[in-house]
Design brief:
The structure holds 2 protein chains of 2 kinds. By secondary structure, chain A is mainly beta. Chain A has one domain (3-137): Phosphotransferase system, glucitol/sorbitol-specific IIA component (M1 Pyruvate Kinase, Domain 3). Chain A has helices at residues 25-29, 83-90; strands at residues 3-21, 33-38, 50-57, 66-69, 72-75, 78-79, 93-96, 108-110, 124-137. Chain A has a 9-stranded mixed β-sheet. By secondary structure, chain B is α/β, with parallel strands linked by helices. Chain B has one domain. Chain B has 2 helices and 8 strands. In chain B, the strands form 2 sheets. Chain B has a 5-stranded parallel β-sheet with strand order 4-3-5-6-7, sandwiched between helices. A 3-stranded antiparallel β-sheet of chain B has the order 2-1-8, covered by helices on one side. The radius of gyration of chain B is 13 Å and the shape is globular. Classes of the chains: A mainly beta, B alpha/beta.
């Protein structure tokens, strides 16, 4: 029998490890907001941010990608026009649990309405993209 | 005493707030570029016209109370509020309006957005 199977393989486009969690982060989670900046960002940003160090920084998120916060995977619904530059240049990302399919602000990454987990130092912050590979199977 | 000059920074297309008059002082001499990719041309122009010191906030650090102005490339949530909250005049190169958890701190006296180098002129 000859057949074609479709295998789903996720590509990691951004991979990082949390190095610090600011004192205001949990309060912002209550408003459905999580802010990232790279380690080494100006100190006045530390209080409101999760700081992290990226090991892979190939691309910013696109709708349909998954953002992984520790063990929690969240589907990306919408992405503002300045998100990619901010993430790749500054390690900066604003995650909004607002359920929007069009971003309200140019820096927004929108996910479903609901809780966003509180990250801890050492946790993973990763973005994966579904990749559909088609392989031909021969008998 | 250093001899600093003033500039007027007006909102650009689609922008909000201002105009801001920015005058560095001996206590607040720094024009901070809190942006990706080094010192932004808007920060460079403010520094050149005022005699302030342009400074890349992501490659070195300085206390925020030394800042005459913070130039940001914020997408609308975080940096737009952090610097106004600390009473630092803030220039966003993106055309944002008050929003985010710190929106209450963003006022026309402290914030202007959508700014390009041509929106910076001698006061």
């Amino acid at each position: 029998m000859t057949g074609v199977t479709t295998e789903n393989v996720d590509t990691v486009v951004y991979d990082s490890v949390v190095t610090q969690v600011g004192g205001q982060v949990e309060a912002f989670l209550g408003h459905g907001l999580l802010i990232f900046f790279k380690a080494g960002s100006p100190p006045e940003l530390h209080d409101i941010s999760v700081l992290h160090e990226a090991t892979t920084a190939d691309d910013g998120p696109r709708p349909g990608d998954t953002i992984h916060l520790g063990d929690c995977g969240l589907e990306v619904l919408a992405v503002g026009p300045v998100v990619r530059d901010n993430l790749l240049n500054l390690g900066h990302l604003d995650l909004k649990a607002d359920g929007r399919t069009e971003p309200k602000l140019p820096g927004d990454v929108c996910i479903r309405v609901g809780d966003i987990p509180l990250l801890a130092v050492g946790d993973t912050f990763r973005i994966t993209r579904p990749r559909t590979e088609t392989k031909e199977n021969h008998p | 005493m250093s001899d600093y000059k003033s500039v007027k920074v007006s909102k650009g297309r689609g922008g909000w707030g201002g105009p801001l008059t920015i005058t560095p002082t001996d206590d607040r001499p720094l024009v901070a570029s809190i942006t990706g990719g080094g010192i932004h041309p808007v920060a460079q122009k403010i520094a050149e016209l005022t005699g302030g010191e342009a400074f890349d906030g992501f490659s070195s650090s300085a206390p925020f109370d030394k800042l005459a102005v913070a130039v940001i490339d914020c997408g609308g949530t975080a940096r737009v509020g952090v610097y106004p909250m600390k009473k630092v005049k803030t220039v966003d190169i993106h055309a944002t309006s008050p929003a985010g958890p710190l929106a209450q701190f963003i006022t026309e006296e402290l914030f202007v957005s959508g700014v390009k180098p041509e929106d910076v002129e001698e006061a």
